[in-house]
């Protein structure tokens, strides 16, 4: 794997960590979940043959610290962060953008608000559940997750979240949008899966939760007996056998989960995109979903919008976390739709 050039960008209220590979037109990769820039390690090298590939840690995650850990998180501000990266790295030309899960929500907002900066957007399973006819049910799910988080802590809340993402009639929870680490603890399949929802960590790191999570963000609610970090630590196996880099990624992933589940999920899944504006820009929008996640909650908004716009729903290998479970095939499909 090629070592990227590392950069730091000061934005309003945060400092972003970003990574650059290759040469050519700019391709901005927006992660979801707690994976950060490392979510795209399995595809970035191949994509850098023809693109300047930029991936980053969204504000508040691991290497992109917030000035105020208690600051409210808003899709519009995260989209503005992405815009600042475009203006820095591709000031004179529109860029291609690909986002997964919560990163796809950011990409949708960026397209509707600054279309002159965007050549094409690939949005893989954006969980914009407010567009669905049964949106009220999903608001109730988020309320249950929030209440469980406050009463019992991180892992019980992740379990509730995972159960709410499953397809109707399925006995196995979908991989939770918080992260595969939460999913594994909650009983979700974790065969080389990665974070979803509002992302993806590398497969080696994402499959093994940290032995002792990094300190939780100060704004994360705690359970009655344990902090979320303590709950994550007690629920997770050791990382002593992992290579140091993989172990560090797992530590970051687990440490970011309280922030993700407590701050990102409630705000991002309550976001309603400008559907009429998206329809008008649908010639630049590729709505994508996992071939193996048909019927799961993160799949449904992309399918719903594609049908409403009369555009194809492009299936990618794997499920919601196909970026990690099928990196070579996922990257190949991503290049196809970007180059089309």
TrEMBL record:
Segments of this protein annotated with the region Disordered? 189-244
* Annotated Pfam families: Abhydrolase_1
Enumerate the spans annotated as AB hydrolase-1 domain.
25-139
Concerning SUPFAM superfamilies, the annotation shows: alpha/beta-Hydrolases (SSF53474)
- Compositionally biased tracts (Low complexity): 189-237
PANTHER family linked: AB HYDROLASE-1 DOMAIN-CONTAINING PROTEIN, HYDROLASE, ALPHA/BETA FOLD FAMILY PROTEIN
Under what name is this protein listed?
A: AB hydrolase-1 domain-containing protein
Q: What is the lineage of its organism?
A: Bacteria, Bacillati, Actinomycetota, Actinomycetes, Streptosporangiales
